[in-house]
Each structure stands twice: as structure tokens, then as C-alpha cells.
UniProtKB/TrEMBL annotation:
Enzyme class: transferase
Coiled coil: none
Biological source species: Tenebrio molitor
Biological process, per Gene Ontology: lysine biosynthetic process via aminoadipic acid
Family: Belongs to the P-Pant transferase superfamily. AcpS family.
PANTHER family, sorted: L-AMINOADIPATE-SEMIALDEHYDE DEHYDROGENASE-PHOSPHOPANTETHEINYL TRANSFERASE, PHOSPHOPANTETHEINE TRANSFERASE
Keywords in alphabetical order: EGF-like domain, Signal, Transferase
Protein name from the UniProt record: L-aminoadipate-semialdehyde dehydrogenase-phosphopantetheinyl transferase
Length: 768
């Protein structure tokens, strides 16, 4: 399903704990300053804070908060003149004349785009999609065929660029043996997706489901795994994926959001070829949306779903069309191109690739195997299908052993559908060429697979920057993001073509724009971030623990010649699942039915409180195992016993009752334990000989009902806990969904609230 071009994966080596490992998320890497408001303590003429955005000027207003979809506003309904077409690619073996005609009936830029595809199958499916679009626009609007013109929006989606008397909407999808189109005469939201139901390659279904666990919510997985045999489970998995893709295509966000936020409730378990099922419901973050989904089977191996942002639409069955029907009223737009047609028939078919040709790149022993192209020119490409969308972080390459044959430089492209590829770019937005002749392992390239920059941010970097009137230590560049965001990294640049740049700076953050905290290192000291070494290059710093804030400000501390900065922040909108505890509250997770017996686990969350002591987390088993986390005299105390009767205690943090948010990470690997609060890390070896933690009673959050073994404080926690993750499970979100669907048998809430009350903070203010 996910295809990445020119990529060879290498698993990272195990080593010391790195806090960033507990927060890694390839979907959270969007530039944030396009819509931010920037202010500064002072500015030189023509060097105001509005010039400090690295990839373009910010808007003058704060970003609008998302609606219930979390993505785009609802448009008009889509009910009129609905069209559903399906083209079976497996039945079409095109002749030379058909390819010649088809490639003459599309726009030149479309034709050039198709020429870049490596496989003949990809050209066929995409070509049919273009022809279906033109057929739909002509028939639904009456526009002359040669007047229909498509352009691509900032997300690469084809949209109608020519003047049109009627409002229409359409969407195309292709996978497996089918290309499909759904359209209607309205400007409502519409998305379509087709999925081939096929077994995963090289994996059992259980392994495949485990790898794809983040795609669906617990409720969806319960539906998928509850339908019987493996074939039925696979079909239900594909059906859920088809529904989710159709919705994401309709709202126009792709897979850049948390896919578990979009949850489907399937009421009709069976699809068929002759009728439409339209009673599936969709929920976004637990709230039901007023959308309709029309589903059916195209054949026993393909399901299709259409997403519509309205109810009570006409049920339209997909009509299979052939090539003759598609080009019946087509008009050639281009001259016949024999070379283009010959190139098409010279392309490989995926199913006919010679076994053992590119596969030899994986044989990295001392043998002489390697992939070599027939021609040594710039048109050669090596494509790797990973079988699913994956987060690729490194690439290793090697030439042919015992020879002088190797590649010294290459580019990388990536994609998620096998058809459309994007070039991997450096932070400045330019395509990156990678030099890899005898590169040692320590110089491996690290990059994010899904790095989506909005086209609006791809400006040529100019010489404009922010510069204060005087270069002193008391200047700040302040950025208001308009809402809470999860900030993963920051890039800076100086004034181009000069020696004006900042070499070191402090990052501070705030929830209200008044009380500020400095980003600290693992020792609790203010971290000094390395800046630039010249005026032209861009330097990027990653935050090991993400910053959660609305306001960010930069305090330059060292510079060359003059303070001059351009900045970009990267991250994503922060999604908070809160639970408030009032000192008599608690949340109980019953472990009697599903006991825990693990050699490793991780817990992370945020909390804030104005009370110095209280029980935060507690659980124990019948064999003497227990884990206890309590706030004692403004510090967090962790105790753990793996059943040996010997308690290991770790303590970290100070002044934690300041009523501002603090980040906590607990991670155990057998007897190795890490405990971190606000990036201050302590590590230890758990005492005793046992490696497993066995818990089979209850897991308590926010307090306990009575005195428990190992606890030193007697009162329950008072304050807020946010985004409590037990391994990969967001426990608070799971509780919300369980109560939403009346499936809360495992949980018991006592005097808890889902929202934190607004209260005045008692912050530690950093002054410089």
C-alpha cells in the first residue's frame, strides 16, 4: 500500500534511552508559522518580526480553530445528478491505437506526468482516471471536451481550472484491478476510495494487524477481529480502511491526522455487488458526524466507499464502463506521439518483473550481488514497495562488492499510492541530492517519510529578517500560534549574503503569553540551542520532548555582527484528553480479566496541580509486584517491586505544585528503569532477580480507595492529568470511548471530570 522510491531500510541500533523515542510521530512535522502572529521587543526599519518567518510571511490574524471535522468547514450538500463509474483494468489489454487515442485526449501536463511512471500498470490506471474525469465534467456541465481543463491544488489534487456553468464535485481512486470515479452536481464534500482485499505479503494476518494497530481505534479493532475467520477479518479490515480513506479524501487531509480520531461504526456487516449499504456511522473524537457513506463490492476482491457530507442521498450503484464508452465523445487535444506510445509498451508490468533483479540489493554479504541498470543515465530508478505506509528514518547504500561500481549521489522520492511521488527536500524546500560514497554509519541521513509542506510556504528565501534596533541580551521574538500546538523542532537562518546571524539562543514557551518557562536539558538547566554558522544555511534543532504551548519566544544569547533571524517551527495541532481529580476522585481499570505480565512497558502523561502531595498512579499483583507513583512534597516519587520484596525508589522534579503542566515519562526494559519529569532524567537498575511486572488486581489513576502497600502519602491527587499513555494506548481517550459506546465494564470513574477547570497559575517566571 505504501510505496517509497529509492529507499533501503535499516533498523536503528539499540542503545541508551532517548526521550525523543517516546514521542516520535512522523505525522507531526508541519510548518506552523504561516498563520501565526509575530511580535518583537524592537525592530530595525524594514526588519520587523513579520520578516522572521523562514518560508514566507505570516498571516495577520490568528488561525481559525477547527470545526468538528478538525479539518475544513462543511460545504453544501451533494445530492444531485450522482455518478458512479468503475473501470476494470484487468479486462483491458490496450492496443497501440487505443493508447495513441487515449494519450491524445488528455492535457499535455497530464501526459508528461504519466510519462514519469515506471510501470505500465500505473500508467493505465492513472490514464483511465484522467479520461473518466473529463467524461464526467463534459456530461455533467455541457462543457466542450476541449474546453475542460484541470489544474492541481496545493495538495496535488486535480481540480477543475476552466470556467464551468454548474458547480460539481468529483473524486477518483484506483487500486488493484479498478479505477473508480464518484461525482455529483454540487460543491459539497465528496470522497471515494477502492481497496483490493488481498492477504498481506510475507506476514501472517496477526503480524499485519499488529503493524497496522495505529490506524484504527479500539472499537474498530473490536469490530474487525469479531467477524469470524481470517478471510472475514481481512475483508472487514479493508472495508474500514476504504471508509477511512474516502472520508480523509473528502475533507482533504490525507493521513496527516491521528487516524484513531476518525472512528467508524459499521451496522451492516455484509456488502454485496448489487446494492448500496449506507447505514455506517462515523465519529470524530467521540462525536457523531452527519455524514453518509455508500458502500458496495465491485467484485469479491474489491470494496468501494463514497463519503458524502450530507444524509439521504440517492443510492447509486457503481456502473462498469469500458474503454469505448469513456472515449465515445472525446476530442483529441494533442498530436499523435508514436515515441510516447512505444515508451508505454516498453514499460515493465509489476506482475512480470524478473524475479531476483532488484531483490539482489538486499544481499549485502561479501558476495558480488547488486542491482545494475541496463543504461547508466539519469532516467534509472529503483522502486521499493514496503507493503504499507511506514516511517522511514535512515537509508544505507552500498555499491557492488569487490569492484569500482557504486553510486556517488542520488535523490529520493516517496509516496503512499505507488503513483504519485514527492521529492524529499532539505529544510529550505530544495530537492536534496545525497552524497553516499563510502559514508560511515555515523553520517547516516535521517529524514521523515511523510514531510508535508504546504505549497504556500515554499517561498524563495530572501534577505529579509528580523533584527532588533540594538543587539543585546534582552530581546525576544514572540510567536502566537493561535492555539495549543505540539512543537517538535525549530529551524533558524540568518540574513542571507551577510555575516549577521544568531549562533545561540534560548527557547521559552507559555500557555497564556504572560508566564514563560525555558526549555531545559536533562539536568534541569536552561538549554542553549545551537544556532547558525553563517547567514545562508538553515540549522534545525529537534526537541527531545515536544513543547506543548500556544506562545513561543526566542531569546538570542550569542550572535555574529548583529542579531538577525528567520525562524520556522514544526509540529501539529495538540489534541488533549484531560481528566480532573478533586482529591476524592479516582479512575479504576480492572485487571482481573486482562492481567498484565510484561517485561517492558512505558507510561507517559502530563499533569498540573496546586497541591504538594497525592497519589498519581498505583497498581499491584498477588505475587508481591507493585508500581506506585505519588507526588510527595512537590516531587514525584516512583516505587517499583518486581516481586522480589525489594523496593526500588526513584525521585525527580521540584516545585511541581505550581499549577502548570509537567511532562512525565516512565519506561522499563526488564530491570532497566528510566524516570523523567520535564526532561530531567534519572535511570537505575531495579533491585532483585525478576524481570517481569505481574499486575492482576486493578490499575488506579488519581488515587486509591484505601491505604495500599508501598504508598507514603495518604491523600489522593488533586489536579489534571492529560494524555495518559500506557504503552501506545491513550487511557483517558479509551475511557471516553468506552462510556460513549456503553462498553465501560473495565473502567470505574469516581468524581472525575473530563475537562480541567480554568485556574490561576503560580508559575516560575524566567527573567533575563
Amino acid at each position: 500500500m505504501g510505496v517509497v522510491q529509492f529507499v533501503y531500510l535499516c533498523l536503528p541500533l539499540l542503545g541508551q534511552y532517548v526521550l525523543a523515542d517516546f514521542y516520535s510521530d512522523y505525522e507531526c512535522n508541519t510548518p506552523l508559522l504561516e498563520r501565526a502572529q509575530l511580535k518583537a521587543t524592537s525592530s530595525m526599519p524594514k526588519r520587523g518580526p513579520e520578516n522572521a518567518v523562514l518560508y514566507g510571511k505570516p498571516r495577520k490574524c490568528s488561525p481559525p480553530r477547527n470545526n468538528i471535522h478538525g479539518m475544513v468547514p462543511i460545504s453544501h450538500e451533494c445530492k444531485m445528478s450522482s455518478v458512479r463509474w468503475a473501470f476494470n483494468l484487468a479486462k483491458w489489454e490496450p492496443s497501440y491505437a487505443e493508447i495513441s487515442l487515449a494519450t491524445c485526449c488528455i492535457q499535455l501536463e497530464e501526459k508528461e506526468r504519466l510519462a514519469r511512471f515506471v510501470f505500465r500498470d500505473d500508467v493505465k490506471s492513472s490514464l483511465i482516471g484522467r479520461l473518466l474525469l473529463r467524461k464526467f465534467v463534459k456530461e455533467s456541465t455541457g462543457t466542450e471536451y476541449d474546453k475542460v481543463r484541470f489544474v492541481r491544488d496545493e495538495k496535488g489534487k486535480p481540480v477543475l481550472g476552466s470556467a464551468c456553468p454548474n458547480k460539481i464535485n468529483f473524486n477518483v481512486s484506483h487500486q488493484g484491478d479498478y479505477t473508480v470515479l464518484a461525482g455529483c452536481a454540487s460543491d459539497g464534500l465528496l470522497g471515494v476510495d477502492v481497496v483490493k482485499i488481498e492477504e498481506p505479503r510475507g506476514k501472517t494476518l496477526g503480524e499485519y494487524f499488529r503493524l497496522m494497530s495505529r490506524i484504527f481505534s479500539p472499537r474498530e479493532w473490536e469490530t474487525i477481529r469479531g467477524v469470524g475467520g481470517e478471510r472475514d477479518q481481512l475483508a472487514m479490515f479493508c472495508r474500514h480502511w476504504c471508509l477511512k480513506e474516502s472520508y480523509l479524501k473528502a475533507v482533504g487531509v490525507g493521513v496527516t491526522i491521528n487516524l484513531q480520531d476518525v472512528c467508524f461504526k459499521i451496522n451492516s456487516k455484509v456488502l454485496n455487488r448489487n446494492g448500496v449499504v449506507d447505514d455506517t456511522e462515523v465519529y470524530f473524537r467521540g462525536e457523531k458526524l452527519d455524514w453518509e457513506f455508500q458502500e458496495m463490492l465491485l467484485d469479491e476482491h474489491h470494496c468501494v466507499a463514497v463519503a458524502l457530507n450530507s444524509r439521504n442521498n440517492d443510492k447509486v450503484v457503481f456502473e462498469e464502463v469500458d474503454f469505448g464508452e469513456i472515449v465515445k465523445n472525446a476530442v483529441p487535444l494533442l498530436e499523435q506521439d508514436d515515441d510516447y506510445c512505444n515508451d508505454f509498451f516498453n514499460k515493465c508490468e509489476k506482475k512480470k518483473l524478473a524475479v531476483g533483479s532488484p531483490e539482489t540489493i538486499f544481499q549485502v554479504s561479501t558476495g558480488g550481488n547488486a542491482w545494475s541498470a541496463e543504461e547508466n543515465d539519469f532516467d534509472q530508478q529503483l522502486i521499493i514497495d514496503l507493503g504499507q505506509v511506514m516511517n522511514v528514518t535512515r537509508i544505507w547504500t552500498r555499491g557492488r562488492p569487490h569492484s569500482n561500481e557504486f553510486v556517488m549521489e542520488y535523490t529520493i522520492s516517496y509516496g503512499t499510492n505507488g503513483l504519485d511521488y514527492a521529492d524529499y527536500k532539505e529544510p529550505g524546500g530544495n530537492s536534496m541530492s545525497l552524497t553516499d560514497a563510502c559514508v560511515p554509519a555515523v553520517n547516516l541521513l535521517t529524514f521523515s517519510l511523510i514531510r508535508r509542506f504546504d505549497n504556500k510556504t515554499r517561498f524563495t528565501i530572501g534577505s529579509s529578517v528580523w533584527s532588533p534596533e540594538e543587539s543585546t541580551y534582552f530581546h525576544f521574538l514572540t510567536m502566537d500560534l493561535g492555539g495549543s500546538y505540539e512543537i517538535r523542532s525549530i529551524s533558524t537562518q540568518g540574513r542571507r549574503g551577510s555575516i549577521e546571524f544568531v549562533t545561540e539562543y534560548i527557547v521559552q514557551f507559555s500557555d497564556d503569553g504572560e508566564a514563560w518557562r525555558s526549555f531545559t536539558d536533562t539536568q534541569g538547566e536552561t538549554e542553549m540551542f545551537r544556532g547558525n554558522s553563517d547567514g545562508d544555511s538553515i540549522h534545525k534543532n529537534e526537541f527531545e520532548v515536544p513543547i506543548i504551548a500556544q506562545w513561543i519566544r526566542i531569546n538570542p544569547t550569542r550572535w555574529r555582527d548583529r542579531i538577525s533571524m528567520r525562524v520556522e517551527l514544526y509540529g501539529c495541532e495538540y489534541e488533549a484528553d484531560d481528566m480532573y481529580f478533586n482529591g476524592t476522585s479516582l479512575l479504576k481499570l480492572d485487571l482481573m480479566r486482562d492481567p498484565v505480565s510484561a517485561s517492558r512497558e512505558s507510561i507517559r502523561f502530563r499533569f498540573k496541580t496546586a497541591v504538594a502531595s497525592g497519589v498519581v498512579l498505583y497498581s499491584r499483583g498477588t505475587q508481591g509486584d507493585y508500581i506506585a507513583l505519588e507526588l510527595r512534597d512537590n516531587r514525584l516519587l516512583l516505587k517499583i517491586d518486581l516481586g522480589s520484596g525489594i523496593v526500588t525508589s526513584l525521585c525527580v522534579g521540584s516545585l511541581l505544585d505550581d499549577n502548570i503542566w509537567h511532562d512525565v515519562v516512565i519506561s522499563r526494559n526488564r530491570r532497566d528503569i528510566l524516570f523523567s519529569v520535564d526532561r530531567v532524567v534519572v535511570q537505575d537498575k531495579i533491585k532483585g532477580e525478576f524481570n517481569r511486572l505481574n499486575l492482576n488486581r486493578a490499575f488506579y489513576v488519581g488515587g486509591v480507595p484505601n491505604i495500599q502497600e508501598g504508598l507514603e502519602v495518604v491523600q489522593n491527587f488533586t489536579g489534571c492529568i492529560e494524555n495518559l499513555y500506557l504503552n501506545a494506548t491513550n487511557l483517558i481517550r479509551e475511557v471516553k470511548e468506552a462510556y460513549q459506546y456503553n462498553e465501560a465494564l473495565r473502567f470505574e470513574k469516581v468524581n472525575t471530570l473530563y475537562n480541567c477547570p480554568v485556574s490561576s497559575s503560580v508559575p516560575k517566571i524566567d527573567n533575563f
